[in-house]
Amino acid sequence: MNTVATAIDLRAIRAQFPVLDQEVNGKPLIYFDNAASSQTAKAVVDSLVQFYERDHANIHRGIHTLAERSTKGFEATRERVQQFINAGEADEIVFTKGTTESINLVAHSWATTFLKEGDEILISQLEHHSNIVPWQLAAERTGAVIKVIPINNVGEILQEEYKKLLSDKTKLVAVNYVSNSLGTINPVNEMIRSAHEVGATVLIDAAQASPHIKIDVQEMDCDFLALSSHKMYGPTGVGVLYGKRDLLEEMPPYQGGGEMIKDVSFNGTTYNDIPYKFEAGTPNIGEVIAFKYAMDFIDNIGHDVIKEYEHKLLMYANDKLRKIKGFTPIGTAKNKASVISFLIENVHPYDLGQLLDVRGIAVRTGHHCTQPLMDFLQIDGTVRASFAVYNTEEEIDVFCDALESIVKKFG
Ligand code: PLP
Questions:
Q1: Does domain 10-31+302-409 have CATH number 1.10.645.10?
Q2: Cut 0.85: pTM above it
Q3: Is 3.30.930.10 the CATH classification of the domain at 45-299?
């Protein structure tokens, strides 16, 4: 058995991901594209099957048994999310399609209402396009100005520069907890504290953090936090926006339609209470219900165990990769999640991705939706291997052997 796997039962974990047990291009699948989307735990898939085979009905409005069943399951996930991120109340949990929609919700509803000309929005050079473009759109609508928090060459946010940018003009700080391209873990707790000292509201993009790091929104004291189920062993099409009650209450609806209203007439409409005010239309009911089992999967192993195991995988891979001729790591922050971005001399990232796929190894290549970061690094893109709790040292060995043979041929 794997030396770094002592604290976790890898065999039992992998058994919960039947998708891993297949050949791709005649080779056993090695899935290292977890930062884009992790594989789905079996209990999650079972829940989806149960929902579509036995329980499917729309939520909240029906009085029949199936409608009650699906409503109960849907609301149970809301309470599970509350517990998972330690929110004060379940009403502070809004279901969305994903992190992107969660951020857009805040950028439309909160930003359009509360930002005015000359106000400043701080985002970092490390952000995913989902945490850049919604603020650019909000800035266009309101006249607010975006300021970019600089980073150093290893991919860490320059904290002194951040503090210099903070002023009474700063109305919003929106940063990621973990960088999807480089894996940098940002010191968000301190950043939130500094932002609050100047009275700014803070949104944390936790899309890459939630599968790896225990999130406690009350301890962090963030005002908003966004995450996506599909990066947490859960289904696609489900995300969460956490918002503090007082903020959500003073925000206008994001979209209009069913569910988000109390009364509708042609003379005017009154809106539902939070969180329903932000959940217009029929949501991904079965997927939300199934998301509960993804959080159970993570909690059954424990974030501490996951973090330690994935860190060991990261260290193991770093040591091996460094020995490969022409290997250059991109992003070597001190505090990193299990993401390795890299380049190999004389082999284009795209070609490398294809050559690895031929060997059954799935990695991501390109700019990873972080073009401003790539511009800063003066590169077009990278190859990114990102590990999940079901990955193994043996897979890293095969990956490194594959890279060696590619380098020998093309490097
Ligand atoms: N933010 C970060 C840091 C991400 O890595 C991603 C997805 O890769 C997103 C936001 C967008 O997430 P989604 O596509 O689930 O909305």
A1: no
A2: yes
A3: no
